[in-house]
Model the fold of this input.
Amino acid sequence: MSARDETPNAGAPAPPTPNQWTLPKLRIDVDGDWYDGDVQVTHEGILANLRAGLERDAEGYFVRTRVRIPVAVADAPFVVVRFERRDDEFVAQLNDATQEVVDPATLRVGPGDVPYGRVKGGRFEARFSRAAAHQLWGLAEHDEPTGRSVLRRGRREYTLRRSR
Done:
């Protein structure tokens, strides 16, 4: 037996270098689902890895590995699936199964009356699911004549501002 026979993958072509890789075409749809091209990513471990590696800079969203992999984001990279008051805080459950305290000052209402808020230490915006939006509106006080909606936390009042 020669040394060549004892080496795993002996005689196999060398793996491609990073500049030879074909990057995946990653995207996040409006519901927070990840896709590689037209194939939905459903493996929880891979999703956890993608979400943990997600970053944003002036060029947009990306996942950093040995190379920068761009991520097209249809709306917001995270989705609030549940929203509730706990004691004197507002807590959001996100589509990545994490829970976060949400600063009510970061909440805004977008087109179609869809609420958004900052998550992940303020690094990302999250879109509220329909169910979470109903939970948010249930916690807010509404003034019908002015159309103003506010959340109260202690003695503070936070207007749910509409963005254009």
